């Protein structure tokens, strides 16, 4: 089993910044792609950003230029630096990890951006 623990969510004013972290532990042999998803009330979960083991990044159009994903393979940790936050970024953010083709999810962390 693999456990993902997120941290770093909270309440911030529009234009502010937050950094999310997600640490993986457990039966980890090799983590392939790691990513962040979000789900706002009444909406489907959507991909925010992902990063391959080799460091190739992918972003949703809505966050390009504002969010940066990174990872530390030695620590099995992925980060999401969020700048210029907007009220529409308000959601529960979930960490995701692909371990040998099996997807694992964190419990989610709330990000609230006030206008």
Largest sheet geometry: 7 strands, mixed
Terminal CA distance: 40 Å
Number of helices: 0
Per the principal axes of the C-alpha atoms, what is the gross shape?
Answer: globular
Strand content: over 45%
Mean pLDDT: 96
Going by helix content, strand content and strand pairing, the class is mainly beta
User: What is the H-and-E element order?
Assistant: EEEEEEEEEEE
Helix fraction, binned, reads: under 10%
What's the total count of β strands? 11
Rg from Cα? 13 Å
**Low-confidence runs of at least 5 consecutive residues:** none
Q: What's the helix and strand layout?
A:
Blueprint: E1 2-7, E2 10-13, E3 18-26, E4 31-39, E5 46-51, E6 57-59, E7 67-72, E8 77-82, E9 91-99, E10 102-105, E11 109-114
Parallel strand pairs: 2-11
Antiparallel strand pairs: 1-3, 3-8, 4-5, 4-9, 5-6, 7-8, 9-10, 9-11
3D structure, described in words:
This protein is mainly beta and 115 residues long. The chain is built from no helices and eleven strands. The protein has strands at 2-7, 10-13, 18-26, 31-39, 46-51, 57-59, 67-72, 77-82, 91-99, 102-105, 109-114. Strands 2, 4, 5, 6, 9, 10 and 11 form a seven-stranded mixed β-sheet that branches. It has a four-stranded antiparallel β-sheet with strand order 1-3-8-7, with no helix packed on it. A hairpin with a 2-residue loop joins strand 9 (91-99) and strand 10.
